[in-house]
Amino acid sequence: MERKRDSKKLKPVKKQKRSSRKSISRMQKKASKKNNKFAGMRNVRKDIKIDHASFVEGYKLSVTFNTGEIKIVDFGNFITENKFPFLTKYKEQKYFKNFKIEEGNIVWGKDWDLIFPIKQIYNGRILL
Fold first, then answer.
1. 115, CA 20 to 30 Å: which among 39, 87, 91, 93?
2. d(Cα 109, Cα 116) in Å, to the nearest integer?
3. CA-to-CA distance for 96 and 54, rounded, in angstroms?
4. Which letter does DSSP use for residue 92 in this model?
5. ∠ at Cα 63 (58, 67), nearest 5°?
6. DSSP secondary structure of 61-85
7. The model scores a pTM over 0.90
8. Are 90 and 75 within 8 A, CB to CB?
């Protein structure tokens, strides 16, 4: 037992059992995953880039990565529910379809009005 000095008296302090400490840390991890919007996203190598993208339908794009993987990514949730007034034009299909690949990422607009982290695109989860 350890002793703790508290207002001129020494009181014994019990150590937590090792198993209870582990269960507490497990509960904390579970709670942080529930509250973390990035939970469940796989780590993505920093050298992954987008080689090609093509319009599929709605707000979905077929994205080809430099690893050879092809994924269908749905941007619909972000496009339809974003609160930024300067991005509302991308709700129209003619503007959404007008994207380009620059520096290994998909960008919209002359000054990169709309761009997403590669990690989100690779995992197929575009976050608000």
1. 39
2. 13
3. 11
4. S
5. 165
6. EEEEETTS-EEEEE-HHHHHH---G
7. no
8. no
Q: How far apart are the first and last CA of the chain?
A: 50
Model confidence at 4, pLDDT cuts 50, 70, 90, reads low
Between CA 128 and CA 120 the distance in angstroms is 11
Instruction: Give yes or no for a contact between 121 and 63, defined as CB atoms under 8 angstroms apart.
Output: yes
User: Which ranges of the chain does DSSP label H, i.e. alpha helix?
Assistant: 18-35, 76-81, 93-96, 118-123
Instruction: Give tens-digit pLDDT for 54-107.
Output: 999 999 999 999 999 999 999 999 999 988 898 899 999 999 999 999 999 999
Distance of CA 3 to the CA centre of its chain: 46
Structure tokens at 24: 């507490």
Q: Determine the 3-state secondary structure of 98 from DSSP.
A: coil
